Every structure is written in C-alpha cells, then in structure tokens.
Amino acid sequence: MGVTTGELIRKVQPVKRPRRKMQNKYKLFFMALPFLIVTFIFYYLPISGWIYAFYDFIPGIPLSDTPYVGLKWFRTMVSNPTQTAEVMRVLKNTLAMSSLGLITSVFPVIFAILLSEVKAGWYRKLVQTLTTIPNFISWILVYALAFSLFSVDNGVISHILVQFGLVGEDFNFLASNSNIWVTMIAWYWWKSLGWGAILYLAAIAGIDQELYEAAEVDGASRFRKIWHITVPGIIPTFFVLLLLSIGNLVNNGMEQYFAFQNAMNKDSIEVLDLYVYNIAFANNFPFATAVSMLKSVVSVVLLFAANTLSKVVRDESII
Amino acid sequence: MKNKKMKPGEVFFQSLNYLLFGLFTLSCIYPFYYLFINTISSNDLSAAGYIKFYPRDIHFDNYFKVLSISGLSHAALVSVYRTVVGTLLTVGASAFLGYLFTKKEMWGRQVWYRSVVVTMYFSAGLIPWYITMNNLHLTNNYLAYILPSIITPFNIILVKTFVEAIPPSLEESASMDGAGYMRVFWSIIIPLTTPILATITIFSAVNQWNSFIDTAFLMTDTKYFTLQFLLWRYLNESSSLAALIRNSPDMAASIQNMQTPTSVRMTVTMIVVLPILIVYPFFQRFFVKGIMIGAVKG
C-alpha cells in the first residue's frame, strides 16, 4: 500500500521542528495547570472526606482524636430498624420523584412537537421566550412565588379555590403531605418545561423539510407526518437525555425540596440529598457522609450502566 | 396552505393548541406580574386580596422602605459582587481552558480533559465538601463564592466544541506570523467565540445570582449573606421579618402603606427577581443559539 498524504504529513512533521513541538507540549500543560489544580481542589480533594464515614467524628474535634469505627455507620443502615425504616422512606421518596421525572420526560417532547405545529411565527417566539423565564429563577424564588399564590391567608389562588368551594377552608397546598410528589413534579415542569423543549425544537428545526413535502404529496395526515417524520427525528436527542437522567436517578438535587420542605410535608418530600443535609445539620456528620458516599457509588454504577446501554443500543457512548 | 379551506378537525386542533400554549405561557408570567402589582399597590388593598389583575393606588414606598433596611442593601451588594466578579472569572477561565483543550499537542490532553468533564457526573457529597471548604478556610470568606465556580465543566465543553468548529487555517496563519498561544487566544479566539461567551456569561451570572446553598452552609457572619439567603429567611422565619419591620425607619408612612410581613416578602422577592427579568430579553437570543450549538454535538 502506498503512503497517504495524511500519513506523510504525520511522518514528516515531528522531524521538522521537534524542539519547538516539545516545548509547546509542556508549555500548554503549564498554561492549563492552574485550572487543573482548581479542579483538583474543589472536585477531587473532597473525596478524601469519605474517610469521615469510618470514624465517630464530631465537628470541632480533630479526626486523630476520634475513634475509628470501621463500617459501623454503614451497618446501622441495615441493622438498626428505625434507621433502616428512615433510609427506606427517603429512598422511596427519591425513587418516586425520579421515576415520575423519567416518565414525564416526554413532556418537553410533546411541548416541542405541538409548538412546532403552531403556524404563527410571532406566537411561537412569544411562547418560547416567556416559558423559558422560570428556568432562570432559583427554587427559593419559585417558593416565594408559590408562597404568595398558594399560602392559606394571602394566596390569591387559595382564595379563589375556597370561594368556589373547590377545596375546604383548611386546605393548605404548601404544608400538605398528600400529593406532594405530584406537586413537586408540577413545579418542576412549570420551571423547566419551556427550557427543556428548546433542544427538541432545535432538533425539529434540523429535520429536512423535503420529507414533509414528500409526505404531503403522498397524502399523509398531520398525525402521520408527526409520527413518521418528527418523532423519529427527535428520538436520538430524547434517548441521550433519558440515559443521562438514569445516571442521575438518585441525585434529585436538593434546592427544590429544601425550599418547599416544612414540618408537615417533610415525610414525603425528603429525598436523599435533602436527607443528607438534614442529618448533617443535626450534627451526625459520619452517618451523613456514609449515606452520600453510597449515593455517589450508586450513581456512578448507574452512569456506567446507562453508558453500556447506550453503547449497545446506539453504538455511541455518553462519556 | 393559506388559501385552502381548513377542515373542522384542523380548526379544532389549531385552536386547542393555541389555547393550551396561551394558558401555559400565562401561568409562567402571571406569578411575576401578580407579585409586581401587589408590591406597587396600596398594602391595605393588597392584604385584603383585592389586587389580582391590575394595580390600585400605585406607590413605590415598599421598595424604598425595603431597600433602606441596612442588612438588605448590604446583601444586595454581596449578590452583585459575587455575580460580577464570579462571572468574569468563570467566563475567562472557561474560554481559556476550553481553548487550551483544543490543542492536540498538549501533554496529557485527553486525561486532563476527561478528568474535568467527569466531575459533571459525580460529587463527593455535602459533608466532605463542607469539611474541605472548612479546612481551606473558605468559610466566612468571599473567595468561597468565586473560586469553586471557576471550573464549570459544561462551559468548558461548550467553548471547546465552538473553537473546534472555527476553521484551523485562521489560527495557523496567525502562528505563522509569529503569534503565540496567548496572542492567538486574545486576538482570534475571543472575538470569534463571542456568541458562546455571551451564553456562558448569562448562565454563570444567573447561577451566581441564584446561588443559595453555599451561603446556607459556609457563612455564619451576616456580612456575607446574599439576597437569596435573606429571602429564604424571611419566607420561613416570621420573627426575623417582624424585627425588621419594627426596626425600619417609619417616618411619613401613611396608614395604608404600612409594611406588613407579606408586603416585605413580596418586595424582597421582586427585588431578587427583577435583575433576571431585566437582563433576560437582551441575552435570550444568544443563549438559545448557544445551547443549540451545544446540542448538535450532544
């Protein structure tokens, strides 16, 4: 076989200016080094803190003065009935809300498909612009809005619902334990639906228009066009995002639940991340560390599972 | 399409579609509007629940009063400070590191790049993070607001993807003329990546402005409190809010404009949300474009 141009260039180049190449190799590395150190300090160094899960650590007392207890904190999770019940409750909440999130992850797809069917361009733009606003406010602010709309004494919506007799006088949206999973998902989609649809709208915009024209000639109905052209066009995007969210099954984050938690709904709203926060604030550092350590391990395993799945199904890896 | 007569089913579908989007859009903006008209209306009418669709007895007393509370204006300064400084550093670092990672000749590039990206998927957890921050003396320290966010893997991926799409001949011709990496970065990469840098700017500014957990965890001194943190406290602790109303200078307030816990809460919420609502329209076209560029590569 002859030598292709590419190979030729690759063969020739190192000989041309080896010294300068060598210098650049390390020069570039040293330019990046400060940032790599920052990455190490804030992302990798904290992992060393996992060691606290193996000690009877009390904040304020140095680690060297605290007794090593081995797997004690991990064992309490399975051997102490009250502790086990607690962990199971939190796990149930976590998985319930994550699976609700997974099931409803078709919402932005539906949103994008329906919005792309809207003919008036100005209306499409207006909807897209205004529905992405909530994505940019914090959960604390969402809660503040919810508070002013739904609180018992001042909330305008609570007032209206009571006036029309749809709910009882004493009904409290924000402090109710029932339906909290559904309420949380509803707030989640209120905040992120418009934003989540942007990716799919981009994918739809990228579909070849000729396909639609051809289908039209063949007499395809609107539904058929959506089903046979639009849906296949955005399925890959949907799949990538779905796989990514599998990796995050146990990470719901905590800001949303933190903002909305109160004494009344705590039982059903406490997800793993929030639970860790709450027990940490009760000063049980080692147990909190043990729980978050297991959580990280589980999510890494899930991520690799999702990655393998992606390789098998789509022949493409996500990491 | 225009001249064709629409079938009844088509008409029904279209109107339903328009209606649904109208309702959802309304639900997305009404809360902000509701809050706004209540903060500028007479506090009396507002407390009685009369302010639903339009403001009445307009006044801006609430804003002057709330902003004159000393802790609050200081918190606003802290929020602005961390947003401006934090964003500048994050954007600078993302741009520079993203650019460096496109250089195939860098020693160990793949390893470094992966080790940065992987941090998107795992974290050590809250307590180890807190203990580390504590050991680094970043509690009650402004640096805690700024340093950790410098490296945001998602931003770095966005920049790297964008720079890779720039024709390499531009850079080559510059380095042929003797420009070093820094020179190329300043004179070629920065000007060409403005759209993506604008996207990152808005993302990171919003993040900084909205950040809450770090204050809750790391700061005990009131002088480091941010607006978000105070808002959260006002929402939950009625005592701190009552104290604040009692202490506010109550000079010439007419009875109907007396501040109530609700009016203070609403006004603080509005003060926190306004900067986002004001900046949003200017950056919207950038970040829609930016996120789509990111989406193409996945």
TrEMBL record, chain B:
Transmembrane segments: 12-36, 80-99, 111-131, 143-163, 184-206, 264-283
Keyword Transport attached: yes
InterPro entries: MetI-like, MetI-like_sf
Membrane topology according to the record: Multi-pass membrane protein
GO cellular component: plasma membrane
Record-level GO BP terms: transmembrane transport
Domain of life: Bacteria
Gene3D superfamilies reported for this sequence: MetI-like (1.10.3720.10)
SUPFAM superfamilies: MetI-like (SSF161098)
Cellular compartments annotated: Cell membrane
Family: Belongs to the binding-protein-dependent transport system permease family.
Protein name: ABC transporter permease
Organism expressing this protein natively: Paenibacillus wynnii
Lineage: Bacteria, Bacillati, Bacillota, Bacilli, Bacillales
